[in-house]
Amino acid sequence: MNGPLNNPQLPVAVIGGGQAGLSISWHLKQLGIEHRVFERHGVAHEWRHARWDSFCLVTPNWQCRLPGFDYAADFGGRDPKGFMLKDEIVRYLEAYVASFDPPLLTGVSVERVRAVDGGFDIRTSSGRWHAAQVIVATGGYHRPIVPRSAERLPPHIVQIDACAYRNPQQLPDGAVLVVGTGQSGAQIAEDLHRAGRRVHLAVGTAPRSPRVYRGREVTEWLTDSGYYAITLDQHPQKETVREKTNHYLSGRDGGKAIDLRQFAADGMQLYGRFETIADGVVHFAPDLRRNLDRADDSYRGIQTAVDAYIAANGIDAPAEPHYVPVWEPQTEPLTLDLTAAGISSVIWCIGFASDYQWLEAPVFDGRGQPVQTRGVTPVEGLYFLGLPWQNTWGSGRFADVGADAAYLAQQIAKHQAATAAA
């Protein structure tokens, strides 16, 4: 569905047509609630245009469970324990849209949403609308973070962020500095390393996870033990868990752990956390050893949790030793002379910032993050969907965004019924 409709009055507007927006649309259709989904690009745009060529999910295919759309039965998925590649993810979302025909307005940018008496005024590239209720389903990762010190890089050095990286061949010949070791940074560094590029990697504080342990994929153990069912209000870290960086691991080659120490043993140069750039020299914090140790502590912590679950339930599973480091830094290099090292490219992989400047409603905290409980905000009729740890670990993922959408659909239906009865 494209272009404006004749009636700009909407019971419900959904901002964003990714997996979150599509999930709430499915539930609203089941409830017979009229709505429109505003998508500034097209179906699966971010997966299609903001991921590198070898990208694949780090969560197994059986965790892809959008509402009313089973990976195996409805999509014809042949490998539930595999990890979808980028093109397959695009096909998955395209097939999902075809399965229920959501009222999707593609190519329509939402420029402003303003809370007014009786609902919300919505200004778009296709005209103005008014909605009684609004769901913000744009997720929490909007703008790649690039430090201001990047302005001091020598002009001949190509610099891009993780969203712009596609493959090693797009970069000029020479060594590459990758900054950040979240999921994107660790996987991009590996992609370059496997292509034979000389890689320098600034190691951040992201934790890491085993892929397979004691005979099973770790996500299976965590599912059976109930970890993925823990809600935010039950989590020992409460709301601070939303600030945690995702564990780095990979779905590549059938799924595997990522060990930065092994990269170093194979010739990759590791540094501590990026600090600044001055006169063609990059400066790093003296925390390489600490960051590697903490990532390994997280890895072993997951192993310990699985051990405890196996023991408590009397499960027959093969024994497996805990991780032992394969490499230790003998020194911690604190600087990198870009010219001397032959650095031709820098890839920034240090995370994303939220951008809700277009939303005029008193629902944000001092850091600009939405204040919400399971997606319900203090402003009547305004909701968020698809945020990290909105309710559970899987809230911002294919795994559980549908469960969050089901909850919000019920809240929307209650609000609609109460308004009609008033």
TrEMBL record:
Keywords: Oxidoreductase. Gene3D superfamilies: FAD/NAD(P)-binding domain. InterPro entries: Auxin_biosynth/cation_transpt, CHP04046_FMN-dependent, FAD/NAD-bd_sf. Signal peptide: none annotated. The keyword ATP-binding does not apply. GO terms for molecular function: flavin adenine dinucleotide binding; monooxygenase activity. This is Putative flavoprotein involved in K+ transport.
